[in-house]
Design goal:
It is built from 1 helix and 14 strands. The protein is mainly β. The longest helix has 4 residues. It is elongated, with a radius of gyration of 28 Å. The two termini are about 35 Å apart.
């Protein structure tokens, strides 16, 4: 399984260093009228990288339910597939901060928009699926501008595994000459630094 890396940066502080040059362009000489005055250049460098939080989050390139069967009877018939997201690197996180990973369907504009799989050649054939964390749909949680919370990481070498759940009951009594075939959906992930509440 291929993975993608998402790198993020969050500025927390900036340092300003002021230096004056130690060597003058000309020597000052009180005996010479033209050399009694001179100039020194003063410079400052703002270092944007000092104490900046940086992180790398690894997301899967593809999650495949594989071949699914149309159920023979009406009712729920679930297929499950794990999805794991990992924090590979987390540096300079301030105390009490974490890296929130949000997820939404690529076509979602709000909480009313489900996770979708659309038939590759017939856009009228759509199945929805869910993402489950600790036996609860993440869609029961808060909708943020960039999706639902998948997990919050507080350091490197952490991972979180949720489950994608597809109810094959959506295929019951469907004409497979129309509904059969390949389906594709896209998950959009978004990361940001957040304050982590202590429990």
């Amino acid at each position: 399984m291929k993975n993608k890396l998402v790198a993020g940066f969050m500025a927390t502080t900036m340092m300003v260093s002021v230096m004056s040059t130690g060597v003058f362009a000309a020597e000052l000489n009180p005996d010479s009228e033209s050399n009694k005055a001179g100039n020194t250049q003063v410079t400052a460098t703002v270092d944007e990288n000092l104490n900046k939080a940086s992180y790398v989050i690894q997301i899967p390139d593809t999650v495949d339910f594989g071949k699914i069967q149309q159920p023979e009877t009406e009712g729920d018939a679930y297929s499950y597939k794990d999805i794991t997201v990992s924090c590979i690197k987390a540096e300079n996180l301030a105390a009490g901060d974490g890296i929130a990973v949000l997820v939404k369907d690529a076509a979602a504009a709000g909480s009313e928009d489900p996770f979708r799989l659309t038939h590759n050649t017939n856009s009228d054939c759509v199945m929805t699926y869910d993402i489950i964390n600790n036996k609860t749909s993440i869609q029961n949680g808060t909708w943020y501008a960039n999706g639902y919370l998948f997990n919050t990481f507080t350091g490197a070498d952490q991972s979180a595994t949720d489950q994608l759940v597809l109810n094959r009951g959506q295929l019951y009594n469907r004409d497979l000459s129309i509904w059969g075939g390949q389906y594709t959906g896209t998950l959009n992930f978004y990361t940001k630094i957040v304050s982590v509440n202590a429990n």
